[in-house]
Amino acid sequence: ACSGCGETPYLKLMTQLFGDRLLVANATGCSSIYGGNLPTTPWSKNAQGRGPAWANSLFEDNAEFGFGFRLSSDHQADQAMLELESFREQLGSDLVDSIIHAPQENDTDIHQQRERLKLVQEQLQDVHTPEAQSLRAVMDRLLKRVVWIVGGDGWAYDIGSGGLDHVLASGRNVNVLVMDTEVYSNTGGQASKSTPMGAVAKFAAAGKRSAKKDVALQAIAYGNVYVARIAMGASPQQALQAIREAEAWPGPSLVIAYSHCIAHGINMTHGMEQQRLAVRSGHWPLFRYNPGRTDHHENPFILDSLRPSVPLTDYIRNEVRYRALNIACPDEAGAILEEAQTVINRKWGVYEEMATHNAMDFVPEKASAVH
């Protein structure tokens, strides 16, 4: 990755949280280059020789590719449970039931499940029947697998957006991490639908004239999708909490992570400070939409950042992609950036209003029973 890359801290955090339970479907882009630059790889292993499973797919089908991870993993877990059931008499009902019904919602639960599976291995180590060998081959599938579908904004906002929408609408337990650089970084800096108004990029040489697409609000509209917007440089605690909550949510989740990029034309040693300015200016509000909160009659939308405290100009003056607008369109630059500030103010107003609603104002996560 480029020195100071804004994407890599999020991937490192994922591996630290989920370790060898992590299955990563990686869209083509920067992350697939530094993630799969064989014969070397940044995806490491633990002391037991286990680590995340990683595979790369295309721009246009990565969401579906990762969805296949979920379907196959669930099928393998079901098969492992069936095979475990056949040893109920030998292993004892208490052990079999404790494995099948294990909650696996936190680190303590996961550790306890590992210990149970280790106990099964010990009890079967002297059993050499084909059935025992088959169970040993699939038994690790009884440990909860964490599927993360990973890529950039060129994938999630543009080329793979249809597939992403399809997977989020499925209701299945998949997690999506969008590392949003607001531009096609790996292919040379072309504008994407994530590129903000006023930024100069290839195919937007005179500054992008339309607002940034709001993928978060699109996902929130489903009602049953966990959605978060994070920026590690602005609030590492909120980023950590959002990723943990996304994984814990039993349905689909979407985490959109601000990722500063060398294509922005910034001093990359100040990347985290630029993330803070993005949040403080209102360009990148931090929030979490947790559908599970409605079960407790709480507002599912939580606005984690304060009202903008600095003007947009304090954020954009550090980036060549905005400063170039004064060179490309000196007569229009002022008006375009003024409109960009207006867009930010209005968007913040939408989020702030959402944060004042009660649980009943949002789409329910699931349909109520019809009597």
Automatic annotation (TrEMBL):
Location of the Thiamine pyrophosphate enzyme TPP-binding domain = 144-256
A GO molecular-function descriptor: thiamine pyrophosphate binding
State the superkingdom.
Answer: Eukaryota
Which InterPro entries does this chain map to? Pyruvate:ferred/Flavod_OxRd, THDP-binding, TPP_enzyme_TPP-bd
- Alphabetical GO biological process terms: response to oxidative stress
This chain's protein is named Thiamine pyrophosphate enzyme TPP-binding domain-containing protein
